[in-house]
Amino acid sequence: MSTSTLPDQLPVVVIGAGPSGLAAAAHLTARGLDVTVLETGPLAADAVRGWGHVRLFSTWAELTDPAAEKLLAPTGWTKPDSAAYPTGADWAELYLQPLADVLGDKVRYGATVTGVSRVGRDRIVDADRDAQPFTVDLVTADGREERLLARAVIDASGTWTLPSPAGGNGLPALGERAAADRVSYRVPDLKDPAVRARYAGKRTAVIGSGASAFTALAGLAALAKEADGTHAVWVLRRGISGSTFGGGSADQLPARGALGLAAKAAVDEGYADAVTGFRTDAIERDGERLVLVGDDGRRLDPVDEVIVLTGLRPDLSFLTEMRLGLDERLQAPLALAPLIDPNQHSCGTVYPHGHQELSHPEPGIYLVGMKSYGRAPTFLAMTGYEQVRSVAAAIAGDLEAADRVELTLPESGVCGGAGLFDEPNAQQNGGGCCAPAPSPAPTLVRIGVGATAAGEADQASSGGCCG
Fold it and tell me: What's the longest Cα–Cα distance across the chain?
C-alpha cells in the first residue's frame, strides 16, 4: 500500500501467531477489521510447540478464547473436554492451528519482524507523528525483506526466545557461554530417547524456582527411579520456605499445586538435593564435568549437565523506534507493572486490566500476552484473552467495551510475592495472607530423607495457607 493510504484503511498487524496473537486476530475479525498476523515459525504457535511435551496446569476450559470459538464453530470444530489438561502439542494441534487455518491468508508464516516505526518518523520526531501509519519491517523465510503499513500494532510475540541466564546478577555467568554444550534453558523432554540418554545416570543441576523447575525436577526424579545414578541438584537463590513448592492443595489450579508437590517429593525422596541461597557467578570446566561457583565463593560438587530455568524476558530489539513506557524492573507497561509485580501478587490478586493499562506514549501499539508481563512469571492464558478483547475494542473505537474489563484469576495458594531480589534469609510476607516465615541460612539440604525434625516441620506448611 502507498504511504499516503489513510491509517484507518490499513490492517492491524499482529506479531505472533500464538494464543494471544490468534485471539487478537479473532476479535479484530469479529469487529470487521482487517488484520495481518506475522509468525516467525512455519506453523501456528511455534513457541508453544517448543514445549509441546509439557502438560499445562490449566484445563481446556481456561485455554480457549470465546471469539475464537465462534470463529471455529462453522468449521465443525469441537472443543476438547473442558476438564482435561492438554500438553503444549495438544494446545497447538487441537486449537491454535485450526484457529490459524480459519483465519486463512490473514496469517503469514516464516515472517520475522525486524523493526516497527512510523512512516518518515524515527522516535525523536514529534511533528504530525500520531497521524502517520506504522511501518513493520520483516524478513521472510527465504531472506527477502518487506515493509508493511499498519493502523495499529499488537505485539504478541511472547518471551520464549529470550530465556534468562544462570547468572545471579541477570547476566550470563562467567563461562556459561563456553559451557553451552552442557547447558540447556528448556524443560527436557525425557520421552525423547536422545534427551533421555543425555540425563540418564547423570548428575544435573536445575537452576530456578518456578513451575518449569518443578517440572524438570519431577521428570528427573521419575528418570532416577529407572536409571541408576540419575540425580538432581536444585539450585535456589533464596532459602526454603512454606511457599517454595507453591500452593499445593490450596492452589485453585489443582494441577499447578500438584506440580509443586511433585517437586517437593523429588527432594523428600532423595532424588534431588536443594542448594539454597546460591547465586551463580561462574560455570567452570572440571574435565568433562561442570562446577557452579557462587558469588560468595562457594563451589558445588561437579555436575554433568545444567538446566537453567530462571525465567524469560521480552525481546524489545525490534521496538527501538517506538516510544514505549516500560517499568524499569519488569519491562512491562508502566500502568500494568504494579498490578503484576511478583513482590506483591501471587494470591490471585492481579486486578482486571485492558487497553488502558497496556497503552504506551506511542498510541496504537500494544504489547499483549506473555510479552505484556515482561519479566513477571505469573501470566495465564485467560489474562491474554481478556487483554486482546479490550485492545481490539479500543482499536475499533468501542471504548465502552474496551473499558469494561472483567477478569478473575484462580488463586495460587502461595502467599505474598516471590520477590525480585531473592534475599536468602528474607521473610516473604509480601502483603499476602500468611504470617512471615523465615528461610534457613544458605546451605545444602535434603528434605525428608535423613532430614532433621526441624527441617520436616518447616516443610509441613508448603501447601500454603490461602485456601
Answer: 75
- Distances from the Cα of 99 to the Cαs of 24, 67, 174, in angstroms? 11, 10, 44
List Cα–Cα distances, 228 to 25, 233, 271, in angstroms.
50, 16, 11
Report the DSSP pairing between strands 111-118 and 134-140: antiparallel
**For residue 75, which amino acid is it?**
T
The total of other beta-carbon atoms located within 10 Å of residue 81's CB is: 11
Amino acid letter, residue 333: P
For residue 466, give every residue at least 6 positions away whose Cβ sits within 8 Å of its Cβ, in sequence order, or none: 247, 250, 347, 411, 412, 413, 414, 415, 432, 433, 434
How far apart are alpha carbons 185 and 312 in whole angstroms?
A: 10
What are 312's strand-pairing partners?
163
SS3 content of the chain, % helix, strand, coil (to 5): 30, 20, 50
Give me the chain's average pLDDT, please: 85
Asked whether residue 454 carries a pLDDT value surpassing 50, the answer given is no
Helix or strand (DSSP H, E) at 196:
helix 193-199
Whose CA is closest to 437, among 401, 461, 455?
461
- Please spell the DSSP secondary structure of 82-119, one letter per residue: TT---BHHHHIIIIIHHHHHHHGGGEESSEEEEEEEET
Mean pLDDT of 402-430: 51
Percent of the chain predicted with pLDDT > 70: 81
- Which DSSP helix (H) or strand (E) runs through 223? helix 211-224
Class of residue 213 by CB neighbours under 10 A (exposed 0-12, middle 13-18, buried 19+): buried
Q: How far, in Å, CA of 205 to CA of 201, rounded?
A: 13
